[in-house]
Amino acid sequence: MGSGSNQYQAKPKGGRRRPPALLPSQDTDLVQSSRRTLVLYLSERQKAAEDPNSAPALLVELARDQSWDVRQAVAWNDICAPAMLEQLAEDKVGLVRRAAAWHAACPPSNLEQLAQDPVHLVRIGVAANPSCPLPILERLLRDSDRQVAQLAANNQNLPPATRAMWQLTRV
Fold this sequence. Notes:
The chain has 11 helices and no strands.
């Protein structure tokens, strides 16, 4: 059997044979036009989610992406709108909720909810939030997780007197 008669490419290392029409080198015009209209690949969606120059409408779409990595990248994006952060604060994945909690634009009502999250990484995000309201920080000073309490004590919004009292009680 000659190499020209085989309609399938050689089996790649650890992979399956693919018909020539599905190989990346084929149909480049179709692939290029698809890339312009829809971000196809995870790495491209993640880059778009991280990009502070991404269109707000694209970020809204990416905030609903199937990949938690992409949703987390949207929450870390400086231009993420409070409405998107509200949505991401309710995500099923703790790392996405943590990123939303850490964002300075996260609405106080969501910070209140996230400060009670069972995942300590989410509470760490709230404690580190530069816009965290004082009542939430005071509650996080008493958190069972030492790292959460320490970050709350180091938050710029905590008055020095409250920080000093907290330090005295931790000894």
